[in-house]
Amino acid sequence: MSETSSFSHLDPQGAPRMVDISDKSVTARSATARARVCFPPEVAAQLCADDWRGAKGPILHTAIIAGTQAVKRTWDLIPFCHPLPINGCKFSHGMTDNMLELRCTVKTVHRTGVEMEALTGVSLAALTVIDMCKALSHEIEIRDIILLEKSGGKRTVHRTQEESTR
Asked: Is the CB of residue 79 less than 8 Å from the CB of residue 133?
């Protein structure tokens, strides 16, 4: 971190605070986060064969619902996040070998971004997959929770495939 950088959630005396966003512009903002869930090969094969249905019900659908609930409650979970109107929340998923990739894209029109909402949503979706599959194996792992894209506000983030796999 450079000498001119500072943590926005600390006041000049170093005490924690919520950032005052009242002077920021209202703009369209979006963020996409990704999590990967790694399965033992036999578990991945069983889940695919069972069309992602387990003893507790439809695994991916339940994960999407849990992730969406988490997006809407991020402000309640992370102390200095502002409550935001969520204009859109979309999940996508894909399976490669033994790795499930989950993505969460969140949109708002507001004075602050939705990076934490996207990261929280995809994290809870991944945790829900583990909860619904843990009877099959305790070797399932969550890997690579990362912010892939962010737009609106001061900075834009767009990680390339190479950058997102480090």
From this structure: no
List the beta bridge partners of residue 95: 100
Say how many CA atoms lie within 13 Å of 144 toward its Cβ.
17
Q: Give the CATH number of the domain where residue 44 resides.
A: 3.30.70.640
- Whether 131 is a known active-site residue: answer yes
pLDDT digits (tens, 9 = 90+) for 85-138: 999 999 999 999 999 999 999 999 999 999 999 999 999 999 999 999 999 999
The structural domain count of the chain equals 1
- The one catalytic residue in 11, 20, 131, 144 is 131
* Residue 19 within a domain: no
Tell me the residue range of the domain where 123 lies.
34-165
pLDDT tens per residue, range 28-64: 999 999 999 999 999 999 999 999 999 999 999 999 9
Q: Is the residue at 28 inside a domain?
A: no
